[in-house]
Amino acid sequence: MPDMEVENSSVSKAEELKVLANGAFKANKFSQAIDLYSQAIEINGQNAVYWANRAFAHSKLEEYGSAIQDASKAIEIDPKYSKGYYRRGAAYLAMGKFKDALKDFQQVKKLCPNDPDAAKKVKECEKAVKKLKFEEAIAFPESERRSIADSIDYHSIEVEPQYSGARIEGDVITLDFVKKMMDDFKNQKCLHKRYAFQIVLQTRDMLRALPSLVDIDIPDGNHFTVCGDVHGQFYDLLNIFELNGLPSEENPYLFNGDFVDRGSFSLEVILTLFAFKCMCPSAIYLSRGNHESKSMNKIYGFEGEVRSKLSETFVELFAEVFCCLPLAHVLNKKVFVVHGGLFSVDGVKLSDIRAIDRFCEPPEEGLMCELLWSDPQPLPGRGPSKRGVGLSFGADVTKRFLQDNNLDLVVRSHEVKDEGYEIEHDGKLITVFSAPNYCDQMGNKGAFIRFEAPDLKPNIVTFSAVPHPDVKPMAYANNFLRMFS
């Protein structure tokens, strides 16, 4: 009898933790929810609901690898539990793995034959898989592909007399033009496609000439600002410039990837950053993030936004230009700045990064993939990625990489942080994230880092989100993905 009582009290304790976790989830405190679901799982690991709920919380933090693992465990415990398949399907979908997602949603439909929602999702998924097969069938091999940029002559595009927005006179992009363009964007006006083509094509020429690893020299007495993910949050980008000044030779910036997707003002963000690059190449440096890729843009909104605001040609052009973005930067031979993180092998030298042929869509493994996708972990050594791509690496990996390359610090982005930043790995690694209240729901602050030469001590500035017009995040995203968020 006493054993039964202990068991009952354990079950009720686990249920209490689940209720608390559900509350944290509703309050958008997803890390806290994961922690509470984990405690419930420790007490009662045979409850499929706890695993599926934790999978959902992982998905909210974009930890799709962990979400797939948890949902698979829920299915293993209860093969008839439809929510397990549903959560796993949604995580596969978020990673662009449509065929795997389809299998799971078909299973949901089988288990819930009268559920109209399940039937709808299977239909959408079948459509996505069919579209993917068609695109693969008509795609040219990489070697035969012609550059879309070579077919565009922006000089021949006429600007209608009634157009009242920002104009570029001749070939030179000036500060006055950029200010007027930002003001137009702020008032939700569009830029004429002639000037949009000009900005993107000029940026392409500049980026193509750069190495895969860019060395930046900051003279003594000068400062340099590093920003993390902006994710289409244009009004927060304007706020960064308000707080820290516009980019210029005296006030240079590095934006560390993930300029687009999620937020619904991604086009405004990318054209602003590119225009500053054209105006003064040493005023702004741009690094590739995992969202500067076709597969992500197809799912998370940028492709739909560009198609809606400009045209299909621009979709192709941006994809091509994103392949020209450098992969990492080094400040004064001391600070290594990269979007994601470090590597699955020891001994990687800066020269290895310089030697990467980056002019392609990111591969699913190897140095380029790891630079864009990896994350730090608290434990030493290396572990599987919670995202399902790249890996997790510990303080010992960071320390060894810095020693091998005679560097002092790693700065990376890629992960939302409550305070906009986090210092880890014995102070040798800083994450900086510059999209406050990410996706209008995370409640986090944004941050940027100012470095002063010669000592390059990081001075971290945090800021809160500012209001933006009533356009929801993911407004242009793949319809199908919006059904699951």
UniProtKB/TrEMBL annotation:
It comes from Melia azedarach (Chinaberry tree). This is Serine/threonine phosphatase. It comes from the Eukaryota.
